[in-house]
Amino acid sequence: MNKHGILIKEGDILNNKYKVLSHIASGGMSEVYLIEEINNPAKKWAAKIANMSSKLAPKLVDETKILSELDHPNLPHVADFFSSDDYFFLVLEYIDGVTLSEYFEQNNYELPTDMVLQIGLQLCDLLHYLHNREPYPIIYRDVKPGNIMIMNDRTIKLIDFGIARKFQENRMKDTVQIGTVGFAAPEQFEKKQTDTRTDLFSLGALLYYLLSEGKYVYVAQKPIRHFQKKLSKSLENSIDQLVQLEPENRLQNAVEAKELLLKAREEYKINDIRNWNWSDIRYISTISVSAIVVGYVILSFIF
């Protein structure tokens, strides 16, 4: 449903270059359409379109500026941007996948721990990339299931940089207090400046949400082990340290978070080996040896 008053329909031609195929979704500040290149119909893109009369249009311009400077496998590629008298257009890589929120719901709010770890590790790599940009780190400020696309191979793409900002150390506070309740860090709603640790809180809140069958850390007010008794110690520690209310008490960078998540993954591998049914393995081994002996006897008889 178009909620931003954008009068774009199937078959419309954009900038004499793109043909509109269908409406995909409505975002917080724009409508998203599937488009194709007129001269190369095999080339499909996603077009985010904002109404120029809207107060939110500058946010799409800001998103364009930030994304056009970035190049990372977990981010959508910017193909084009242009404007008309009525609209601003951002043309992005079309991502053939579903949002993590949709995927989570489709799977009855339960995901395998190894998949949650895989998502967390990819986010750590991406946040490290964003937080170490020069001359200004980029603070994403909106890590949540609805902004993460899941591909068939379980790789992710982080979408919607509408409230991302460049961090400047001399600022005392953000211009606007903004974020998604349930995943945003406390400082996003206070008269403070957000920094790289803000995204780390949201990472922890996301992992908490995925491992607790959809509970929000703010609401639950319980450690993650209350919902997951069999968590590895490293995974439990990483989440508990990420969701500390005071930034100075959290893990301080994405590398620290990644180290704990990698350790957790190794702990799960060790536990999997310990839980193997070794009697079955011995049984299989006995059969294999017997087969070799029988084969040797048959060959000896033939030759």
Automatic annotation (TrEMBL):
User: Where are the membrane-spanning stretches?
Assistant: 283-302
Protein kinase domain ranges (all copies): 18-262
Give the EC number(s) under which this enzyme is classified: 2.7.11.1
**This chain belongs to which protein, by name?**
non-specific serine/threonine protein kinase
Query: What organism is recorded for this protein?
Result: Virgibacillus indicus
Molecular function via GO: ATP binding; protein serine/threonine kinase activity
Q: Which UniProt keywords apply?
A: ATP-binding, Kinase, Membrane, Nucleotide-binding, Serine/threonine-protein kinase, Transferase, Transmembrane, Transmembrane helix
EC supergroup of this enzyme: transferase
- For the keyword Phosphoprotein, the answer is no
Q: Does the keyword Cytoplasm apply?
A: no
> What PANTHER family does this protein map onto?
SERINE/THREONINE PROTEIN KINASE (PTHR24363), SERINE_THREONINE KINASE LIKE DOMAIN CONTAINING 1 (PTHR24363:SF0)
Q: Which reaction does it catalyse?
A: L-threonyl-[protein] + ATP = O-phospho-L-threonyl-[protein] + ADP + H(+); L-seryl-[protein] + ATP = O-phospho-L-seryl-[protein] + ADP + H(+)
User: Gene3D superfamilies, per this entry?
Assistant: Phosphorylase Kinase, domain 1, Transferase(Phosphotransferase) domain 1
